GTPase Obg (Maledivibacter halophilus), 427 residues
Amino acid sequence: MFIDKAKIFVKGGKGGNGNVSFRREKYVPAGGPDGGDGGKGGSVIFEVDEGLKTLMDFRYKKKYIASSGENGRRKKMFGKDAEDLILRVPPGTIVKDEETGAILADLTTHKQRAVIAKGGKGGKGNVHYKTSTRQAPNFAEAGDYGEERWVILELKLLADVGLVGFPNVGKSTLLSVVTKATPKIANYHFTTIKPNLGVVDVIDGKSFVLADIPGLIEGAHEGVGLGHEFLRHIERTKLLIHVVDISGIEGRDPLKDFEKINNELARFNPKLALRQQVIAANKIDLLYDKGKFEKFKLNMEEKGYKVFPISAVAKTGLRELMLYVTEQLDKIEDIPIEAVEADHRTFKLEGKEKRDELIVKKEGNNYIVEGKSIEKLVYSTDFSDIDSIRRFQSILKKRGVFDELIKLGINDGDIVKVYDIEFEYYG
């Protein structure tokens, strides 16, 4: 089954917690702190595998979470870093942030990688918190949380040339004749249900990839039928071969069909109107009134299009068409459809601000403080140790938590809840 779009959740592993421990050798009864640092959490990394053709692997499993780093150990021993989680995708995959729509990675070449959810940094052990006045720190730093988000995966075929046109005009037959592709061919009045690829080689040393884009219908730009799913694959092509049924044996008007398809392309993405098009007037062997072709050709050439009379079934006119396309591809520069971030291979810490965001609110008579950085702070604090508590309060003050509580009208003796911890406020 051809799957070219998926929505998944990715989360980097949590960093390991720093260790709280003290030297306790036989002859060192009051040794100093020796807690080691926690290991780094694993990152979620996407890697291109040219052997994959679809996003089928992501159809049923929707959540991917990397492993957490190990906690620090005694004797200043670091916790082990977690292994990264590698997710393999086919070439042509774009990774988008589901919430913002921003492009995080554009993966096109074999083995290309992109870090999409970075693992959390390991926390520092209590050995780092020893000072001249604090000889035995009874606290350590918790590991950072890994980045997390929902992402959209979109596969856009890596083809140089796309075949477009209404259903049943002969695109699949044309692809099968000029390449070694084997699409299903029949007298369908709807459309091929998946794109097919083939390689055209008419000039020694030069070849190009040709894609049979499933037949479009009116309203495709609005998602009618499978419009959006198919139009997406045209965006990477450098040139389009527009196939029309010149015979008119099914009552179709090739000129109107041509205009309708171009309207769908332009309305889906205006930049597609910039694509160079070559017209393949197919089923010429079934046309009895040759004047009809000449009239159509004259009309198209006046608009700047090159027209080739062909018969995919009888295999006539195909070499001339493919030779012309091969020559044109050497002259055409890539036209970017979507702007990809300059550093799209690495997911930058856009989520860092969210991780540091604090929520200070009042519910009933209670005041509540929430946020991932505060949750981490609570975990790192030993509330039975006065130095650890002072550090906790100092960080809350620096972050402006007390100022926000005052704005909400807190009074001495009011209860403040920070996750599982409750304390009375005194200004």
The two ends are 65 Å apart (CA to CA). Residues 183-193, 217-228, 337-353 have pLDDT under 50 and may be disordered. The CA atoms of residues 166 and 217 lie 7 Å apart. The chain has nine helices and 18 strands.
